[in-house]
Amino acid sequence: MFLPKLVSTIVLAATAVGGIDARAQTPQPGGVQYASAPVPLSPAAAASRADDDNFLLLREAARQDDASAAASYAARLPAYEIASYVDYYRLKPRLREASAVEARAFLERWKGSAIADRLRNDWLLELGKQRDWANFDQQLPLFVLNDDTQVKCYALVSRALKGERVTADARALLINPPAYGEACALLIATLAQSHQFDRDDLLAQLRLAGETHATGPAKRTAALLGGAENLTAQAVDLPALALARGLGASSIDHEIYLVAIGRMARTTLKLATVALEKNAPKLSPQEQATGWASVALAASMTLSPDAYAYWRRSAGAPLSADQLQWKTRIALRQLDWAMVRETIEAMPPQLRADPAWTYWLGRALLAQAPGQREQAHALFTRIADLNNFYGQLAMEELGLPLSIPAAGAPLASFEIAPMAANPGLRRALKFFSLRLRFEGTREWNWELRKMGERELIAAAEFARQNDILDRMVNTSERTRTEFDYTQRFPSPHNDILQPTTQSLGLDRAWVYGLIRQESRFITDARSGVGASGLMQVMPSTGAFVAKKIGLTDFVHTMLTDLRTNILLGANYMNMVLANADGSQALASAAYNAGPGRARSWRATLNAPMEGAIFAESIPYLETRTYVKNVLANATNYATLFENKPQSLKARLGVVTPSGARVNQLP
């Protein structure tokens, strides 16, 4: 039986600096290679290894907030090559008690570095917790990345306390209650007390907290509205009990009841709709619409055939960003272009500007009002230069060929040499050698901020030379005027992959498109649920496929072998493609989320559906993003391999309703 490979984030292990696998290898029967006997380390290498071990222990002590252990390990590293991180991990566990003088000394010592910005982020959070707004306001403008939601919440609190109007900024920021923490809770309370947030703002936060199953934020917001925290927690966590308790008399009781309706709809639509219908006479028209919007959202996320009717009953309800997007997706599935246009135009500007909704608004204009072709083409033009799923679709709407831009002049050695000498990139290589991919990526990306187009191409080439292909891809993707698509869409291990795909009759461009999305060519990538290798094959999937193809000696550790991983992954792709009747969109969904889920999504169809609409309405965010990226990748690979323009629309095709099939994958 398959274990679905749906995960929130792939945890990618690092490649070795000197190569993807720098271990000595000896041939083994069956083509699988295992490490040969280790070579004894020289004294210098042994000392370096000991330093690395102590550094890893220091890092872990800091992560555990063990200041004493961190100080002890740091003392063993007086001349470590990443000295700034030794200082950081020594200071971080006691930052709460450290003086402003000590924090500023660190920031001055490592001024301009990625780790200094990280420490400033940490310190800003501490200053916010301590309500030290003088130091907070002094440090905030120096925070370069400024990418921490809680720091942003503290910043708005500080401004609000000075009498500034921050309502619009707060509404735009406060969209994900599970990530609020103390800072954003303080912001909401501050704005409520200063009357910058009115009752409608607080109700929007209450509904959003219920929608995202954020019990703490729901309780706190309900209390600001005069509601009972215990009853709110019950509505979020135990909605059946909340519905059994009844509606209540006050308006806030009604709102808490509607939260319970939305939560219950996630478990059983029937009970939620019965409860809503039963109490409809006691609810205002807007409260009824709000209840139906919650039910419609839950129905949409299971692709229920009733979702469209529920959305129509929600007219007049204030909708969250997620509700607006799902209402649009269901309207797309119904080809209700009027509803598509109306709902996209109701989105807040930032959401409406997303390439997906820019594209579908253009499509709605063409379908609903052919005379608005010029306006639709203006929307398509706005996103056509984005080499992604919707950028490619927009180009096709404009009649432009999906081709590969001409490469710039070849790089000279003098252009790559500064990359090898760059201290930040060298730190990144060190972190990758220690399998600390998060820190390595942070250092790498920090340096990219300072680079022009030609330098980015050179940095990507430096990554290629060091077999860090994920950084090569990411770096090369940042250019806007100069391009090297061999960096953006590499095809390593073709000597293994091409014979495999040829023997299976499998589209090599699709396979590479999937690998690029799965692992970014990190051969020892490993997900949080155990998927391994270049093609991120689950152990249970590997065992199933191995049995099917007659690989009798399979054990799950073989998934880290490159040839075995490609063999099993490609064969699995072939199996899911056959079960999807040749639809790469459906097969890609099955590869990511599991064949059972893909089958259930297909079973909701009662007529052929445009592939782009099917992809956009996949219920799981990860799989929805995955399918779009895989097929956009595959289109680029096909253009490279065949040296002629391609069509993403043709690759997407249509997804047809499922018929009776035998030998379906479990």
Write a compact overview of the structure shown.
With 666 residues, this protein is an all-alpha fold. Strand 1 (25-26) and strand 2 (34-35) form a beta hairpin.
Architecture blueprint of SSEs:
Layout: E1 25-26, E2 34-35, H1 43-63, H2 67-75, H3 83-91, H4 100-109, H5 114-129, H6 133-139, H7 149-161, H8 167-173, H9 181-193, H10 199-211, H11 215-224, H12 229-237, H13 239-245, H14 251-267, H15 269-279, H16 285-300, H17 307-313, H18 321-333, H19 337-345, H20 349-352, H21 355-368, H22 373-383, H23 389-397, H24 413-421, H25 423-433, H26 437-448, H27 453-465, H28 469-476, H29 485-488, H30 494-504, H31 508-518, H32 539-549, H33 562-579, H34 584-593, H35 595-603, E3 609-610, H36 611-616, H37 621-642, H38 648-652, E4 654-655
Antiparallel strand pairs: 1-2, 3-4
Helix pairs in contact: 1-2, 1-3, 2-3, 4-5, 5-6, 5-7, 7-9, 9-11, 10-11, 10-14, 11-12, 12-13, 12-14, 13-14, 14-15, 14-16, 15-16, 16-17, 16-18, 18-19, 19-21, 21-22, 22-23, 24-27, 25-26, 27-28, 30-33, 31-37, 32-33, 33-34, 34-35, 34-37
Report what the structure shows:
It is globular, with a radius of gyration of 27 Å. Strand 1 and strand 2 form a beta hairpin. 44% of the residues are buried. Among the domains are: 47-142; 160-336, no CATH class; 494-655, Lysozyme. Helix 4 packs antiparallel against helix 5. With 666 residues, the protein is an all-alpha fold. It is 62% helix and 1% strand. It has 38 helices and four strands. The chain has a two-stranded antiparallel sheet with strand order 1-2. A two-stranded antiparallel ribbon has the order 3-4.
